[in-house]
Write a structure and sequence with these properties.
The chain has 199 residues and is of the alpha+beta class. 41% of the residues lie in helices and 15% in strands. It has a 5-stranded mixed sheet. Helix 4 packs across helix 5 and helix 5 runs antiparallel to helix 6.
Amino acid sequence: MKKTLYDLTKEDWNTLFPIKLVDHNRDWKNIYENEKQRILDKVGKEKILRIEHFGSSSITSIKPKPYIDLMIEIPKELLFDEKLIEEFTELGYSHFKVPARENIEEYSTFGKGYNIDGTKEQIFHIHMCPKDNVMWKQIDFRDYLNGNKERAKEYEDLKIELASKFKNDRGSYVLGKTDFVKETLELIEKKPTHSKVEK
């Protein structure tokens, strides 16, 4: 019987998909837009209220993992909806439930492009939750770093250090960024709204 992503242990994930940072790729924006359109065409705007590109590949001045992260807003009543999950399965995604932790409510995540035979594909991550989930603050984090090159460089330096230490430990790599993200979100909250430059 063929092994699937659901059969992988934590150690398998760490070995098969090591942490590797790359230079920013301008094509990622188009890859994101194309995937966004595929999702909207398949699922529809009644269920998909908003889609955003977030994560390090959406921050243009830093080295990220070459993954496209999408944040998708859905109505609260569709959280873990079986028909909705099935539609994403038909688009090639595997669904995982993220349990509640600290101040984050449980939500859905999906992955595509992970091949356990080692072949390379574009990897997509989807985080799907209603608009009141604290995960949506990641969009503020993205915007702040895109507008603050100095803070973005600090984030990149931290990521490079963590990737070097935890190449085969995805959990520790993610955990190592937590304080920086939290501190940045606190900076955003303290920032006076009138200081924004009019475009």
